[in-house]
User: What shape does this take?
Amino acid sequence: MKRIGFVSIFLILFLGSCTIKKKEVIVYHQFANHSWYRYDKLLFNVSVEEINKPYDIFLFARHSTGYEFDNLDFGIIMNTPSGEERINQYNFLIKKKFGGFSGVCNQDSCEATIAIKRGIIFSKKGVLKIEVENLVPRLEVKELYGVGIKFVPSY
Assistant: This one.
């Protein structure tokens, strides 16, 4: 009888510790000369494997501590696997209102993140296409190492 109790407790603890890992997808575009030019569009493709479940989509930017602007304005055109097109513009605050950077920083670089869409549900499997366009009113945004997309299940 003691053996059955021990096995039962072991199974409960083992099964309780097992968790389903959420598949976070990260797609990153690194800028060769640490600059993003005004008319250079970035295209990110993310595979949607599960339907009728919510996902969160984030854009993140890695930059040096010498980044000169307070923000990084950008536009998004998102085409879902079902053919729906969503267009939006974002004002991504890189610097805090009273100084310092808004993201996580180490000695010489920072990474800031902004939510593009939370809880989006896809009705078809396929490829989610996200086009990102630099909308900063300068021909060149310097001290920017790269920009990426994080695609995270929110269930």
In short: Confidence is low (pLDDT under 50) at residues 5-18. The radius of gyration is 20 Å.
